[in-house]
């Protein structure tokens, strides 16, 4: 971390730990509890102490501890637009503190469709802020590039600027990667655009995950994309027109392919609850990831009003939906990860171990590759939860040497 960054005082809401912290942490994959010691310096030592029959330890009030949640698609948060440019390290820290208060300890900021020059500049400026910030090097596990290799057709393009969409272009990916200190971990692409299949092969060969999104691909194109190395579906059920053929459509083809893991936005707005339940049954717990697709309008302390998403103005309504004013298409979400956890518990009765799988362990699989494992701190966070009448809420999060509460 640069020397001048070290000299800054911590932002409000974050403090350095002065003594070790001992916590029993839920590990959903092994259905065990892990005793974690968090040192003042941020080190983590873990030892399994529970049998497979006991999922995790709770406090006298039902409180519990989990490893930090991981969000693979965050466009902005807490009033900060990651796609706007000119981000300072201090302002980024404030947004990351707000994210940590929702249980997120690792994320992939998403850079959306724009001109090539704008995308390169925005990502470079964001990455500079990450490197100079306190929490950025610990929480930012890499980047998600969503566009410009998407369908420009109305409905499929969603809130992305179709004027800047293009054929697959590896030179742009190389330019984006050349300007950042940490890896591009995920690229969303429409398999039907020119050159997409070859790009998928190259990216997969580099260890970069590729997702289908904002796509009007047919069954054969989707299958060819998966054969070439696509592993994920970006916000499945969205980035589509309101009207589709009842069965012959990209949603069913992606749900049917067991090689694909689907990302869903569980806010009750992007996908109606009965439809989401059906999609979850199709993919199962092992092939499902929950993500927010959050924009600058998301956060504990944000509310209805006008915000930005890149060059576009967006509006958050009273019920929480976010759209470009005058458009019927959604422009990201205002939901938080902890709210999605409560939603899934209330709607479908999912347990905390299952939700940790969907919100931590499944996404972790896609960002910790042998070619580029990323910064260790980005996936080692720990979150303490308090049980309330409305469901679990975050009490505090431990990230590296810092505690956020």
From TrEMBL:
- GO MF, one annotated term: N-acetylglucosamine-6-phosphate deacetylase activity
Which EC class does it fall in?
Answer: hydrolase
* EC number per UniProt: 3.5.1.25
Q: Which Gene3D superfamilies match?
A: Metal-dependent hydrolases (3.20.20.140)
Query: Which SUPFAM superfamilies does the record cross-reference, listed alphabetically?
Result: Metallo-dependent hydrolases
| Signal peptide location | none
What GO terms in the biological process aspect are recorded for it?
N-acetylglucosamine catabolic process
Q: Which keywords annotate this record?
A: Hydrolase
Q: Give the domain of life.
A: Bacteria
For this protein, the record's InterPro entries field holds: Metal_Hydrolase
PANTHER family, per this entry? Answer: N-ACETYLGLUCOSAMINE-6-PHOSPHATE DEACETYLASE
Which family would the database say this protein is a member of? Belongs to the metallo-dependent hydrolases superfamily. NagA family.
Name it.
N-acetylglucosamine-6-phosphate deacetylase
Species this chain originates from: Roseibium album
From the broadest rank down, the organism's phylogenetic lineage runs: Bacteria, Pseudomonadati, Pseudomonadota, Alphaproteobacteria, Hyphomicrobiales
Q: Tell me the gene name.
A: nagA_2
